[in-house]
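Hi V.,

You were right to ask for the full record rather than a summary. Here it is.
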Amino acid sequence: MARKFAAAHGLSDDDVIVDRLKLEELQDALYCLQAAIEDVDNDLRGKPTAAEVRTAVGWLLDNARPVADIRLEPKADTAS
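Predicted structure:
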């Protein structure tokens, strides 16, 4: 039934329909992670102290965990 629905809507086997809000949540979390990576790259230039490294790693983990927690599931439409 899913393949019939996909074909009727011009979707290939490689296309997936996901919830827009979950996708936006993932995009927001990825943006925060990208910014955190840039921050940590800057913080670790030179010779950071052990405390600075711990702080940077903590910041990175704080921004990585939300990304790791997001689950995108394909949506299936049972109506055709």
